[in-house]
Amino acid sequence: MYDIIIIGGGPAGLVAAVYARRAKKSVLVIEKEVFGGQITFSPKVENIPGFAALSGNEFAEKLVDQVINLGAEFEMDEVIGIKQGDIKTVVTNSGEFEGKSVIIATGAKHRKLGLDREDDFIGEGISFCAVCDGAFYADKTVAVVGGGNSALQEAMLLSEQASKVYVIQNLDFLTGEAALAEQLSAKSNVEIILGSVVTEYLGESEIKGVRIRNESTAETKDIAVDGVFLAIGLIPQNEPFADIVPLDNRGYAKADESCVLSRGIFVAGDCRTKKIRQVTTAAADGAVAALAACDYIENLTK
Fold first, then answer.
1. Is 133 a catalytic residue?
2. What is the mean pLDDT of residues 65-69?
3. How many C-beta atoms lie closer than 10 Å to residue 96's C-beta?
4. Catalytic-residue membership of 116
5. Cα–Cα 20 to 30 A to 81, which of 134, 155, 222, 284?
6. SS3 for 185?
């Protein structure tokens, strides 16, 4: 029996573990893939307070070491459900774990194109965040894949740093806000390519370009780029909890800044409804959720 079971070992879950252990609560962190989460794929991170620059993997290692030294337990497994009750039962592929409270910190995965070698190029030319990685492409050529608000905002930011920005949209129109699209179209270093899809990444160990196909004519052409930013949406990892957690129409757990979902169940990080999804906001959620869980546990004993 644990005081707090944390599902997800990214920044939100690990920071939650730090706060929970400092409050002398027993903690189990369950992660299905890699401790540290999505940030481990970033070769260089420059927006973490206290560090001018470090790799995402370095940051994750420091955070994991901190949690280990504080005495939290770790389990590498996939959670497939939660049984609600006074005592929460977290069900995994290999067994069950009981806890007085649960923090869901499963994050959200970036949608990918599903092309050959795509995973190999992540961190080697493929990125998902202009705020995080845009500075690496100063005076270089980049492509943004997508046409919604997120893609247009990424392209706007990149246009201030890169020498050339291609925006590649599969539809014959941009789906983002008209005002934002107009601002982007006015940029002299931005070229918008509509009705086209990326069919192949070009390069050996790192991105050197993309091959695109026009959906109407089936014609293909190669574009030389130094980096590709995918902005085609996020997939929150909340499906195993859909029966007990309120989700919005996109699958995000519906919770405000209190990070409270229901009695004894909390949420932290990118898997909850929020506007800004950055490592710092995930960490903040982790602290809030952990302290809320600690309050919940202490009230149980009164």
1. yes
2. 97
3. 10
4. no
5. 284
6. helix
